[in-house]
Each structure stands twice: as structure tokens, then as C-alpha cells.
Design a protein that fits this description.
Strand order of the largest sheet: 3-2-1-4-5-6-7
Number of helices: 17
Shape: globular
Distance between the termini: 6 Å
Structural class: alpha/beta
Number of strands: 13
Length: about 375
């Protein structure tokens, strides 16, 4: 008999799709191979929700539609977390799961983990142990608190193991399994490479810089955002820039009255947010990436594409010590210097962190379904 027979998976935001999809499939396959009766329930909290984008992600990642959509919508951190907890609690009382599996560090992660623990349901946290050591980041608060109350902690890199040990988490709760984001990447890379995305966006292989910026520290303050506009204008003089514009960034550009000026920057190509396969294709073809995203630091490391992270810290140090990532911040001169170095000729060989081999989800399934 499997260790857990009824598992609730929680999806709250876009990166969660890529982490849950391989786990869901691995559990399904493991259960079928062992004739184990396992029920999986997929809950979408609606924390970040676009019907069109969500449908596209489920189709591209070969995931079933959610069994339950809580439709909580946006709000302040307190309001959103409270809404999720209020909506998720009845799911637990009605469905009576043995385990709630949460991923990442969004508000849905901590909210659903808290509900589960208060109802004495085991919690598994995928991507445990990552630390930026910056408690001003809401994601860091979510990570630390979720790890503290989880029963099973699945780590993606060796720094996670060290962090959890330093925080007093029992060793028998921690499992170093690798990175489920890389599982999805490995699985879908051939399909992504065959897509005509670059032609559709008007860029050519190896001759553009991919940019994603959405964090409050970069786009909420008008002075910082104005400086970034200048940085991107100068960067576009080196190579054309492709930027799928995040709704938060677009909204702030509109609020400050700068959107038209931004769109008029020469050689800066702006598009709407892309689906998983199209965005992956854009990563594979980029000469370099400028970002403030956590997941892109990981994906670019696996792909061997130079990544410049415009943040003061990162919770993914393996992407620096064993990958292609550089932590720069948002100072214009430092960013442009790093970009020049990233665009210079480099070796085709690049290291990949241990266990980033496309089999993390299989290891998670083996732990969850062991007798």
C-alpha cells in the first residue's frame, strides 16, 4: 500500500505549472506500475489566473484541467493569503487528503500549507530550503514558514540541504531530488525548438537578448524603472532586445506615463507574455538573458545561456557556482558591463548542478508512494 493514497496538488502561479506537471505524471506512472490505488486532486487557487494562458499551459504541459478552481484573484499579501486559506479549507474537509503538495514560494504555498497543518494533513514542499536571506522579500517569508511546518521537504540543490540543516529541520524529512522545472524543460525542449516563435517575434537565432522584469524592487519605484528604461535603451544598441512584457511592468509604465516612450525604444521588441513552449524557444535562441526571475536563472543554467540577474540576491546559488548566472543588481554600468561580457565568445561546455537530469519528479513519486 502506498504511503499516501489521496494527494492534493496546489497550483497558484505560472511557475507552479512546470513543477507540478512532471510530479503529477510521475505519480500516475509509478502508481500504475505498482498497481497502487492513488487519487490525485489538482487545485488551482486562482492567485495568478488568465483563462487563456492557463488553458495554454495545461495543454502544453499535458496536464489535466484542475479539479477545483478557487478563483481567489489578486489582492494585498494579507488579503490574498486569507482568501486562499478560507477557500482551501473546505476542500480539505470535503476531500480528506492524506497529503497536500505545495511548490515554490508564492502566497498559495504558505496559505495551503497552513490550512493542511491545522487540519493535521501532511504537507510536502517541493523546492524546499532555498534562501535569499532577505526577509523583505515576501517570497522569502513564504519559503521559510512553509519549510518550518512541512513533513516532507524536497530540495533542488545542495544549498537547500545546508540551509534546512542549519535551521534545525530533521534530516529524515529532507530529500535531495533535483529540480522539477528542469524535468519539464527536458521533456518539452524538442517540441519547443521546433516552434516558429523567433520568426513570429522578428528575431534571429543567437542575435537578441531576452529580457524579463517584474519584481517590485525593479518596476514599482518610478526612479528605478526610469533608470531601467535607460539601461535597456543602451543594451538594445548592442543587440536587439525581446521583452515579453509582464502585466505588472506594463501597468507601472502606463501609470507613470512612460509606456509609449518605452515602446518607442529602437531595437526593443515588446510582446505579450508567452506560453511555456514559446518562451522556452526564446530562451534557447537568446545570446543572453536579463531577468529578475528565479526560474529563468535555473532554466538558462541548464540551457547554457548566459544569464544576468538584476537583483541584489538570489535564492538559487547553484546557478552561479555551477551554472551560467551572474548576480548584478540594477546599476546601469554594471548591467551593461556584464552584458558585454556575456555577449563575448565563450566555451560551449557548461556545468549543470547535480540531479538536474529530468528525473526529479520520479524521485519525489518514489518517496511519496513508498510503503
Amino acid at each position: 500500500m502506498p504511503r499516501y493514497r489521496r494527494i492534493v496538488h496546489v497550483i497558484g502561479a505560472r511557475p507552479n505549472y512546470m513543477k507540478i506537471a512532471p510530479i503529477y505524471r510521475a505519480i500516475e506512472q509509478h502508481a500504475a506500475a505498482t498497481a497502487a490505488g492513488v487519487e490525485q486532486i489538482l487545485v488551482h487557487t486562482g492567485q495568478h489566473y488568465s483563462p487563456e494562458m492557463s488553458t495554454q499551459f495545461f495543454d502544453e504541459l499535458n496536464m489535466p484541467r484542475p479539479d477545483i478552481n478557487l478563483e481567489v484573484g489578486s489582492g494585498s499579501h494579507a488579503v490574498q493569503t486569507a482568501r486562499i486559506m478560507e477557500a482551501f479549507e473546505p476542500v480539505l474537509t470535503e476531500r480528506q487528503p492524506d497529503l497536500v503538495l505545495v511548490v515554490g514560494d508564492v502566497n498559495s504555498t504558505i496559505a495551503c500549507a497552513l490550512d493542511a497543518k491545522k487540519l493535521h494533513v501532511d504537507v510536502a514542499h517541493v523546492e524546499a530550503g532555498l534562501r535569499s536571506f532577505d526577509m523583505r522579500m515576501p517570497e522569502e517569508v513564504n519559503r521559510v514558514m512553509t519549510d518550518r511546518i512541512s513533513d516532507l521537504l524536497f530540495t533542488t540543490e545542495e544549498s537547500g540541504n545546508r540551509n534546512l540543516q542549519a535551521e534545525g529541520i530533521a534530516d529524515d524529512k529532507v530529500f535531495f531530488v533535483g529540480n522539477c522545472m528542469i524535468d519539464s524543460l527536458v521533456s518539452h525542449l524538442p517540441k519547443a525548438r521546433s516552434r516558429p516563435t523567433l520568426e513570429e517575434q522578428g528575431v534571429t537565432e543567437g542575435n537578441y537578448v531576452l529580457v524579463t522584469l517584474h519584481r517590485p524592487s525593479n518596476v514599482d519605484d518610478p526612479d528605478t524603472l526610469k533608470q531601467l528604461m535607460g539601461t535597456l535603451a543602451e543594451a538594445a544598441q548592442r543587440k536587439p532586445i525581446l521583452i515579453p512584457l509582464h502585466p505588472r511592468t506594463r501597468g507601472n509604465l502606463e501609470r507613470f506615463g512612460w509606456l509609449d516612450k518605452f515602446l518607442a525604444i529602437p531595437d526593443l521588441k515588446v510582446c505579450e507574455p508567452l506560453g511555456y513552449l514559446d518562451f522556452l524557444r526564446c530562451q534557447t535562441g537568446a545570446a543572453a538573458i536579463l531577468t529578475d526571475s528565479g526560474g529563468i536563472q535555473e532554466e538558462s543554467t541548464y540551457l547554457g545561456v548566459p544569464c544576468i540577474t538584476m537583483r541584489e540576491n538570489t535564492e538559487r546559488p547553484a546557478t552561479i557556482s555551477q551554472g551560467t548566472n551572474r548576480l548584478i543588481g540594477n546599476d546601469r554600468e554594471q548591467v551593461l558591463t556584464a552584458l558585454d561580457e556575456a555577449l563575448s565568445p565563450r566555451s560551449a561546455e557548461h556545468p549543470v548542478p547535480p540531479l538536474w537530469d529530468g528525473k526529479a519528479a520520479e524521485r519525489i513519486a518514489a518517496v511519496l508512494l513508498s510503503a
